[in-house]
Design brief:
4-stranded parallel β-sheet
Length: 252
């Protein structure tokens, strides 16, 4: 099976109270300073011991020299407007504390990431962070109602589907949903794909892929389809459907 790769692995790193080197002056450096301070980082000079650094130096030669010095010490560097020099990048962020939506392009187009962030700001409800906290507070109830982890994920995926009781872009009430006897895990699915294009997946099929722990599939299912599953889900190629779970095959 062909392997699809990303330019970066998206990570959320806690920098609260931790040192981060920031080099440079001007608008770009000020913007990065605001982001770092909002995340609680302690901004330090180049001589300090720190795992991360941001280089926002305009002069090309000076920027390259600073990056080389820092990388020589094992520091991971973000070089503003120089994606080829970056070990890590800062995404555009939609903040619904504790929910953060990060949009990254690997440094290729900050403008595109910013435009998407602005669109998402209008789509994502302002109270979504409060709902996230309510679900966290209800985790013991969730475990009691759905002891099996896979069942729990499928039930949540169904509840959060468009128009569902926990639709993230609609209105939701975790307590009411848990008390609703109709809340139950989604059944096993056998999906016959009509073509190799992942954009042809139905909403139900896409949700099933996104929530499955294991995706059983016929050997001829295209990698582009399998890439729509969770990145950490197991992919198991087999000639026939398993006794339970999700199975994909191409329609004849």
């Amino acid at each position: 099976m062909a392997r699809l790769t990303w330019h970066s692995l998206p990570l959320l790193m806690r920098v609260n109270g931790r040192p981060v080197i920031l080099l440079g002056e001007g608008e770009a450096a000020d913007a990065k300073r605001r982001l770092l301070l909002r995340a609680g980082a302690t901004i330090v000079s180049e001589d300090a011991d720190a795992p991360l650094a941001v280089v926002a130096i305009e002069d090309e030669a000076d920027a390259h020299a600073a990056v080389a010095r820092l990388k020589g010490r094992g520091v991971l560097v973000n070089a503003v407007d120089r994606p080829a020099l970056c070990d890590w990048t800062l995404p555009a962020i939609v903040d619904r504390d504790p929910l953060l939506v990060a949009i990254g392009t690997g440094g290729v187009s900050a403008g595109l990431a910013a435009a998407l962030r602005q669109r998402l700001e209008g789509l994502i409800p302002a109270d979504l962070g409060t709902r996230a906290r309510a679900l966290f507070a209800a985790r013991d109830q969730l475990r009691a109602r759905f002891p099996d982890g896979a069942d729990r994920r499928r039930a949540l995926a169904d509840a959060m589907a468009p128009g569902g009781p926990l639709d993230p872009l609609g209105e939701g009430d975790a307590e009411a949903w848990l008390a609703d006897p109709r809340a139950a895990p989604a059944p096993s699915l056998h999906i016959r794909l009509t073509g190799p294009d992942p954009d042809d997946l139905t909403l139900r099929q896409a949700r099933a892929l996104a929530s499955a722990d294991t995706v059983h599939h016929a050997p001829d299912v295209p990698p582009a389809i399998l890439a729509r599953a969770r990145a950490d889900a197991d992919r198991v190629a087999c000639d026939r459907p398993p006794a339970s779970g999700l199975y994909l095959e191409m329609a004849e």
